[in-house]
Task: structure prediction
Amino acid sequence: KVRVDFILEKNPLTLTDDKTVYMRIIDPAGATISDVATGSGEFDYNGQKQGFTISKDITYTNNNQDVSIMYDRNTPLNSGKYTITLYSEGFEIGEGSFSVK
Result:
């Protein structure tokens, strides 16, 4: 399992409404981890289709809200460094990484 916790900060330019956050987990070889059975798919980013690992629908409250996304994988992750990138409304909103030994 991979759990990502982050804060959606206040943004006076963004409406308080329902939004979808897309999470991409990039494996050490540079490929997006993707499995349709676990909720993977594609979204539009910079005019192109981009694969995502999992998405989460949230109601944005514009008050530094805590968000958690859990990705439950049926097979173990290989050793190496993984990159996580978060997107919403056509923008990259965050990035991080973790390592598996």
